[in-house]
Amino acid sequence: MKIVSIVGARPQLVKLAPIASAFAETEHHHVIVHTGQHYDADMSDVFFSGLGIPQPDVHLGIGSGTHGAQTGRILGALDPVFEAEQPDWVLVYGDTNSTLAGALSAVKMHLPVAHLEAGLRSFNRRMPEEHNRVLTDHAADLLLAPTEEAMRHLATEGLARRSALVGDVMVDVCLQVRDAVVAAGDPPAGLPEGVDARTPYLLATLHRAENTDDPERLAALLDALAALPVPVALLAHPRLVARAAQHGLELERGAIRVGRPLPYAQMVAAVLGSTGVVTDSGGLQKEAYLLDRPCTTLRPETEWTETLADGWNHLVADPREIGVEAWTRIATRPAPDATRGTPYGDGRAARRVVEVLVERHPGKERR
Ligand code: UD1
User: Fold this and answer.
1) Is residue 280 in contact with ligand 1, taking CB distance under 6 Å?
2) Pick from 15, 32, 44, 326: most CB atoms within 10 A?
3) Highest CATH level, class, for 185-331
């Protein structure tokens, strides 16, 4: 069987790592297509080298742009790739513009599409990611869901027959890397200057368009981070850096210490070294949960609702609405005593993905 994976943005490279390694154990032919949505070395290259992912077979070099331009360029560039490859499955990941373009291009060429991380919903129609995931789920032939909750959403939308519960491939990679980091025993590396890994610090990221693109909101979120009583290691995504510069906002202020995005293993080490995480990233919320650190999520809702149980994750839509004291208490709270279940699976999701792709292959005659 030939499978073409379409990836382009940082979180997709993390999900690709366990999938590529699961395929490497089989006789199947796995082709990697990188759209080039993320192109900075620390947003892309370090994930290939750090996670042992084979270099992409095809690189489309699309780069940045408005949603329409970026999605459209990927769509057009994929046609000849699919024409040449004629894969048995096109595998798309998550909820980015690369995901939607990959799915759309493939279905128009009558190629079977599987969506990894299907069924997640924020129910927030202002988020570009929400449109990407809903449209991709409804276009795809096979929906690989990470959780029971995702399966329920798919069933509600009439998609149960195309769905399969496989678990979350991010658990595969996160736990494997955690074990390696713990075994090596090294202190966290790559933290921003001014953050001492031997004393308490919070790890923060901020990149969602809803948080970065409105100058007033971004200023308020930065002020809230700056007011915290412990150093805040802010690993700045390129979108955050670009928007802050555009709005004339200084990132480094008060408790905030600004650093660059980290490679995956260093990120896991940085979470393990922290007392807690403050973020608007979906992946990091879950990594904090898997790594036993309390997380405060700067959004009104989360797709990963399982992390909210027992206070492991706490949503703060707008720190201004709850006041400095409540905000500080929430953001610096200790890890809960409660033990967690395993709502995201057992760390063997990628192998299950390969099995399901084999079982559910529609067969060329039925296309
Ligand atoms: C994208 C995804 C988002 C995902 C995130 C992870 C969409 C709609 N959004 O958001 O779901 O959580 O990736 O990072 O697909 N830039 C660089 N260098 C890079 C990449 C981006 O400088 O390597 C800058 C550009 O100025 C660009 C901006 O970041 O305009 C935003 O990049 P883009 O790919 O549009 O979306 P992200 O915000 O990264």
Assistant:
1) no
2) 15
3) alpha beta
Q: How far is the CA of 112 from the centre of ligand 1 (A)?
A: 27
Query: Is the Cβ–Cβ distance between 41 and 4 less than 8 Å?
Result: no
User: Domain 2-168+346-359: what homologous superfamily?
Assistant: Glycogen Phosphorylase B; (3.40.50.2000)
pLDDT at residue 161 is higher than 80 = yes
How far away, in angstroms, is 168 Cα from ligand 1 center?
23
- Is the confidence at residue 188, as pLDDT, over 80? yes
**In the chain, at which residue ranges do the beta strands (DSSP E only) sit?**
2-7, 29-34, 58-59, 89-93, 113-116, 142-145, 163-165, 202-204, 232-235, 256-259, 276-279, 295-297, 313-315
Say if 2-168+346-359 and 185-331 have the same CATH topology: yes
Ligand 1 center–CA 186 separation, angstroms = 31
Structural domain boundaries of the chain?
A: 2-168+346-359, 185-331
Encode pLDDT of 77-133 as tens digits.
999 999 999 999 999 999 999 999 999 999 999 999 999 999 999 999 999 999 999
